[in-house]
Amino acid sequence: MTETRATGAPDDRTRAHSVRLMIATRKGLWTLASDAAREAWTLAGPQFLGHSVHHAMLDPRTGTMLAAARTGHLGPTIFRSNDLDATWREASRPPAFEPGSGRTVDHTFWLAPGHPSQPNVWYAGTSPQGLFRSEDGGATWTGVAGFNAHPQRKAWCGGDQDGTPDGPKLHSILIDPRDARHMYIGMSSGGVFESMDAGADWRPLNQGVRADFLPEPAPEFGHDPHCVRLATGNPDRLYQQNHCGIYRLDRPGTQWQDIGVGMPQTVGAIGFPLVTHFHDPETLWVFPMDGSDVWPRVSPGGEPAVYRSRDGGTTWQPQRNGLPPTQAWWTVKRQAMTVDRFPTAGVYFGTTSGEVWGSRDEGGTWKCLSAHLPHIYAVEAA
Amino acid sequence: MIAGELDRAVEQHEFRIAIPGALRSYTRQASQVTVALSQSSLPTLGAALCALDRAYPGIRFRIVDEQDHLRPHIQVFVDAAIERNLDAPLPLGARLMIVAALSGG
User: Fold this and answer.
1) Would you call B102 and A77 a contact, using CB atoms and an 8 Å cutoff?
2) CB A362 within 8 A of CB A300
C-alpha cells in the first residue's frame, strides 16, 4: 500500500489560524471548520454514515487523520486520510489480539499520535483493554506485547466482560514529550500505569486515588480513571478525572492529590472529560455529571456547567454563560471535550444528545455550534 | 444455477457468495461474487472466506474475529442452513449467503 503525506507543516497549527473539530459519533464522522475569528462554523459530513466512530484524530505531526470505526455487526477497523478528510483508506491490518489468545477486539476506543521524533508511530487503545502500535501511519497495527501479554494484565484489568456498560477500555495513551519511551495509559477499569521502556513493561501509578467501589480502600490497581491528561508545557504534571474524583500528580512524585475537594458539594467531582490549556499548565476544564444514586450520568440537576481551574485544581469556577439554564440532561463523554491552540483558548464539547458547544474565550461564554447530530463520542480540535 | 454452471462450479470448486449491503463497499457494490478454491484442499467455509478476502482484502476481518470465530451478529447460510463452524466442509456447488443482523437503534 502506498503512502502519501499531507503537505501542511505541523507548526502551522500552533499558530492557530482556524479550528477544525473532528466529531466522532455513534452514527458517523462529521467535521466543523471555523473562520479565523472562530465565529462562523461550517459543518461537513457525514463520513462513514452508520458506523460507530469512537475516536477520530488529526496528527499534528503529519496531517494524517485516523478514525476508529465499527458497526453493530461488522468488526472493528481503522480508516486513514492523508488529504484532510477528502479520501479515506482502510488499515490493511487493524488492531487485533494474537490468534490463540482467546481475546477479541470489540472496538478501538482511543487513538494517539506517537512522539514527535517518530512521525509514523501511532498508538491505539481498545475495548477490552489492549494496547496496539502502528509504525506506518496507521496502515498496519501490532499488539504491544509488553502490555497485552503481561503476566499481570488480567489481574490489573479483570475479565474482558467486566467494567463499564460499553465495555472495559484502554484510553489516555500519553507520551512524554521529552522521552518517547516514557508512556502512561489509563484503563477503565485497571487504573493508571506507567512504562519507562516504550511499553515493554508497566507498573501501576495509583497511590492516593480512591476506588470506593472495591473492598480494599487503597488498592495498588483496579481503579477507574475516566480521562488522564499531561499538562502541556509541564510534562511532569498529570491530571485525572476519575470515577471517584479529580486528581493531580506532580512527577517524580507518585502520590496523586485530590483536587476535586474544591468543587461545590452540590455538583460533586465526578465526570468523564478533562482537558488542559495548550499554553498554561495550571488551567484545566472538567464537565461534571451526576454520579449519585444509580449514576444517572447527566448534568447535575439538569443544569450543565463547565468548571475551570486556573490554579491547577485548587479552586474551580463554574462556566455556564450561554448554556441552557435548566432541563438539559446531557452527558459529555471522556473524549468529547477538547481545546484548540489559540493563546486565548477555545474550548469545545459534544453531548450525548448530539450538540456541539464552543467557547472562544476559555469558557467565559458558550455558543451552540451544531445540533441534531447523533450521540457524540469524541470531539478533537486541530 | 443451471446444470452447466453447476458442473463448472463443481469441477473448479467455485462458490457463489451473496454479499450483504454492509459489506459491498469491499466488493465494489457487487451483491454476488464467486470465489474459487484450490482443488487440492478440502473446501470448507473457512477456506471460502479466506478466498473471499484474497479477492476483496479486509472483508474477512469484518465478519470473522482474530480467534477465527464468526462475529456475533453475522450469519452465514450454506444453501438453506446456518453454518457457524469455519471447518465445516462445503458441498460442491453450495451457495453461500452472508447476513449481517442489525439490532438496536
Assistant:
1) no
2) no
Work out the mean pLDDT of chain A and round it to a whole number: 93
Chain B closest-CA separation from residue A40 CA (Å) = 33
Report the residue of chain B nearest A375, measured CA to CA: B105
What is the nearest CA distance from A29 to chain B, expressed in angstroms? 17
Enter the CATH code of domain B3-100: 3.10.20.30
Those residues whose C-beta lies under 8 Å from the C-beta of residue B29, and which sit 6 or more positions away, are: none
Question: Stretch B3-20: mean pLDDT, rounded?
Answer: 74
| Nearest-neighbour CA in chain B from A109: distance (Å) | 17
**Amino acid occupying residue A382:** A
Grid cell locating A265: 458539594
Closest CA to A177 of A237, A109, A242: A237
CA dist., res. A41 & res. A15, Å (int):
19
A126-158 core/surface letters (b: 16 or more CB in 10 A; e: else): bbbbbbbbbebbbbbbebbebbbebeebeebbb
Nearest chain A residue to B105 by CA: give it. Answer: A72
Q: Please list, residue by residue across A187-211, b when 16 or more beta carbons sit within 10 angstroms of its beta carbon and e when fewer do.
A: bbbbbbbbbeebbeebebbbeebbb
Between residues 92 and 121 of chain A, which touch chain B (CB distance below 8 Å)? 92, 94, 96-105
- What pLDDT is recorded for position A158? 84
Structural domains of chain A sorted by starting position, each given as residue range(s) with its CATH number in brackets: 106-381 (2.130.10.10)
C-alpha cell at A382: 486541530
Given the cut 0.85, state whether the ipTM is greater than it.
no
Which H/E stretch holds residue B96?
Answer: strand B95-100
Looking up cell 512522539, which residue turns up? A115
SS3 A370: strand
Compute the half-sphere exposure of residue A298: CA atoms within 13 Å on the CB side of its CA.
Answer: 12
User: How far, in whole angstroms, is CA A207 from its chain's centroid?
Assistant: 22
